[in-house]
Amino acid sequence: MTSAGANASPGRIELRDVAVSFPVGLDERLVALDGVDLVVEPGELVALIGPNGSGKSTLLRVIGGLLAPDRGEALLDGRPIAGSDAKVGLVFQEPRLLPWRTTEANVAYPLELAGRPAPEIHGRVADLLRSMRLEAAADQIPSQLSGGMRQRAALARTLALEPAVLLLDEPFSALDELTRERLNLELLELTERTRTTVVLVTHSVQEAIFLADRVVVLSARPGRVAAEILVELPRPRSLGDLDAAVVTETARAIRAHLAEPDTTEAAA
Amino acid sequence: MPSRIHARHLAAIAAALALALVACGPPSGASPSAGRGTLKVGLGFLPSVQFAQFYLAQQAGYYREAGLEVTFENKIDPDLVTLVGQGALDIGVADGTSVVPAVSQGIPIKYITTIYGTYPSIVFAKASSGIASAADLEGKKIGIPGKYGSSWIMLQALLSSAGLSPDDVTIVAYPDFGQGVAVQADAVDAATGFANNEPVQLELSGTEAVVLHVDDIVPLPGPGLIVGQTALEAKHDAIAEFRNATLRAMQVIAADPSRGLEAAIVAVPELASDRPTQLAILEATIATWAPPGGGPDDYGAIDQAGWQATVDLLVTLGLVPNPVSLDRLVEEIGVMPA
Amino acid sequence: MTVIPAFRHAPTGIPGFLAAALTFGAFVLGWKALVVVGGYPPFILPPPEQVAARFVSAWADGTILPHALRTLFEVALGFGVGAGLALVTGYALARLPLAERLLSPYLVAAQATPILALAPLLALWFGPGLTAKIVICALIVFFPVAIATMVGVRAVDARLLELARSLRATRWQIVTTLEVPAALPAIFGGLRVGVTLAVVGAIVGEWAGADRGLGLLVNLARGALFDIPLMFATLLTIALLGIGLYGLVVLVERALVRPR
User: Fold this and answer.
1) Is residue B81 part of a domain?
2) B12 lies in a domain?
3) Mean per-residue pLDDT for B253-257?
């Protein structure tokens, strides 16, 4: 368990006026994010949604320590984020499994890199494979697995170091609808059990509502927080909840903000 | 999963292979020069003053007078033997000690005339080294190009005459033929070389040289004219005329070496850049044309007894896998003009 | 409704090894036909059975063995040195852009210069001993292995590198757990080429001057012994050496390179 200071709690994310830009050509800069303020409380599941180019993935990378902001602060449990942290786990859109390693070896990878002793690795990996229902695939290489299993293996790998924060960048967008639904349920079940802080980037309004406590809508480039919409669905959640009336209203509210640039132009 | 190749594909591959083999097979005996009086002659690797007699005979018209049209090519020794055996060249210049293993391996050539009556491959040292005979080589460092060829045969013969074997000396190999320089630099005590080359260079640099000849031990046959069996049958008379014309040129040069030098310079203009050295080499070459104790009248003679002794020596050195009789090795043709 | 394929192979197929044997047989028959039809004497092109007999006798009486061992030694050492340096250089070329820009012209120039021309020069500098042969072998092996390594390491998926960095892998861990396994197939491609070239290098090195070796034996057989069947038997030995070493590299590749 992490040692906590007076105000710090495991897995609290705070972003203040975060701006990120990229050099483009000789003199130009592309502004991806222009002053984002966001707080994610420990154990919260926040969905990030926004049009293409709104900087969702960029924001995730800032929280993950893969990108440093030009301006503003990014804090994890009160301390500035400087490079990747063992407390933060990243799940990318592609599984990014090492093609020559078995599922078991892939899931063990972070533990190996962290220098954990072999028996500990072995036990932890066995637990992860079991909890993600990957035992049958333990000795198979990624080319032998289906898309859903690969992504599950990637998720299991990310969980190996027991991160306090889980960052997911459209983790299931490449999968078919049925598998996606199933994995959403698994993710829910996992996070509700472990009280991990989760920030999930998604394109799907439905997915955002189903999973999140709060949906943060980013504006088009340059990205800023356009709206934060609470999802008033009780936990634990199930598929049946998607039929509730509150879901339609929340979806409408989200879509309204997603469409904002057009409506403001029309109004002007 | 085993790869399955079908019989059709196999036949196609085999046919393609066969075609390729036929297409790139060696030339089946390149066309021998047509006509009785036309001769293709192969000389040693590089054109040099050592072939002066051929250049003179060509330029002074000796071949033409005999009704011959002669062209020269330059090849290395092993190739010459094969080309002559094949019939791609009519005549070649090759060392007598190469002829024996070649004939033993079934290459149909014959040695018809001696050019170098004294064996040109020698062992030399600085006179100051105190080496005066084969026995003095014991325990010394001797530089050689490698353990093959005429110099290796000569060295083994020389050592055995003093009851020595190569194990009684230290052999230092100079694959780049730098053994002459090694003697000058005192890196070795003695080295093998050619009578008209390294000792000459040594003396020209101001150091007196001592030369050990193998002729007293075994009269090894030096380079001479070799002819292929088919050419011998088809062009016997032309070859005899060529031999005589060449020996005539040798006698002329022996009497007046400058004529040989000038003929060589016409053929190889680069030689003019250092006349004195080339003349020295030519004079040393002329000295080896005659057998030990002989003169220009003895040019071209084949020493049958010497050949037999040589065959016996080469048998002991393991270079004669199948027995050869002298009549398969040598054939004297033509008569020295009076 | 079953789909009937429009094109179908007849069920008769021939397993791979049998096909190889049959192809070799066709080659030998073609050789024999060439000798018979062309009327070549044995000192120009000996028939296959004579070469085979000489091959057996030359191995049995110990003619070839010492030369083969020397050449094998030169190849092994030269390949080891050349490939070892090439692996490191290839990695540097892949990961240090400055290295590639600085070194590439020299590497390409060295590769373009025919080894046959360089060999006598190297023999002059390093003398007639083993060193010159090993240098020549190493030189000839260097370029293909270095380039294969460079290409293989460059081709490592950038997304996997990002993953490793996100897991706080050290430089060394990235090399050993990611870059090397990812690049191994490409590297082994280079090693396969390199090992066969190493044989060429050893032979060429021996031609520039040697006291032992298969290249020297080829020259001896041709020029001093006039034993052309022995020359062919030696060439056959060289070919077998190359095939054997190539097979060895393939075996090592199968052991080290995991399927993906």
Assistant:
1) yes
2) yes
3) 95
- Final residue in a domain of this structure, among B190, B216, B242: B216
Q: Edge to edge, what strands does the sheet with B91-94 contain?
A: B69-74, B38-43, B91-94, B224-228, B109-114
Listed in sequence order, the DSSP H helices in A147-267 are 147-159, 177-194, 205-211, 245-258, 260-267
State both tokens at B110: 């014959």
Is residue B110 a part of any domain in this protein? Answer: yes
Lookup: tokens for B18: 């066969």
Same domain, residue pair B212 and B232: no
Q: Name the least confident of A37-46, B14-23, C217-226.
A: B14-23
The domain boundary, picked from B216, B238, B263, lies at B216
Element (DSSP H or E) covering residue C50: helix C48-60
- Measure in Å the smallest separation between the Cα of B229 and chain C Cα atoms: 13
Same domain for B94 and B236: yes
Residue B147 domain boundaries: 120-216
Q: Which residues of B158-190 are buried (b: 16+ CB within 10 A; e: fewer)?
A: bbbbeebeeeebebbbbbeebbbbbbbeeebbb
Nearest CA in chain C to B177: C209
Domain membership of residue B130 (yes or no) is yes
3-state secondary structure at position B124:
strand
Convert the pLDDT of each residue in A122-131 to its tens digit: 999 999 999 8
Q: Do chains C and B touch (3 or more CB pairs under 8 A)?
A: yes
Window 137-196 of B, Cβ < 8 Å to C: 146-149, 173-176
Question: What CATH number is given to the structural domain containing B177?
Answer: 3.40.190.10
- Checking if the pLDDT of A263 tops 50, the result is no
- Beta-carbon separation of A64 and C166 below 8 A: yes
For residues B113 and B225, state if they share a domain: yes
Tens of pLDDT, residue by residue over B101-125, are: 999 999 999 999 999 999 999 999 9
Task: Write out pLDDT tens, residues B65-96.
Answer: 999 999 999 888 778 999 999 999 999 999 99
B225 lies in the same domain as B303: yes
Q: Which residues contact B46 (CB under 8 A, 6 or more apart)?
A: B74
Name every chain A residue with its beta carbon within 8 A of the beta carbon of C178: 98
Q: Where are the alpha helices (DSSP H) in C96-129?
A: 97-112, 115-126
Give how many domains chain B has, as a whole number.
Answer: 2
pLDDT band at A3 (very low <50, low <70, confident <90, very high): very low
Whether residue B6 has pLDDT greater than 70: no
Nearest chain C residue to A143 by CA: give it.
Answer: C260
Find the range with the poorest average confidence among A236-250, B299-313, C161-175: A236-250
Nearest Cα to Cα of residue C165 among A67, A115, A105: A67
- pLDDT winner (highest mean) among A152-156, B197-201, C8-12: A152-156
Same domain? For B245 and B208 the reply is no
Question: Taking the model in full, what pTM does it have?
Answer: 0.82
Q: What residues 250-289 of chain B have any CB closer than 8 A to a CB of chain C?
A: none
Mean pLDDT computed over A89-118: 95
pLDDT for the residue B180: 86
Report chain B residues whose CB lies below 8 A from the CB of C219: 148
- Residue B337: the pLDDT is 52
- Phi and psi at B172, nearest 5°, equal -115, 125
Report, as ranges of residue numbers, the positions in chain C whose pLDDT lies below 70. 1-13
Here the tokens at position C81 are: 């040195």
- For C178, the closest chain A residue by CA position comes to A98
Classified as helix, coil or strand, C170 is: coil
Q: Do the chains contact at C40 and B175, CB–CB below 8 Å? A: no
Question: B158 and B129 in one domain?
Answer: yes
Whether residues B93 and B163 fall in one domain:
no
- Contact between residue C211 and residue B305 where contact means Cβ atoms under 8 Å apart: no
Residues pairing with B123 in the sheet: B192, B212
Residue of B nearest to C211 (CA): B146
Instruction: Please give the pLDDT value at position A5.
Output: 41
The pLDDT assigned to C5 comes to 58
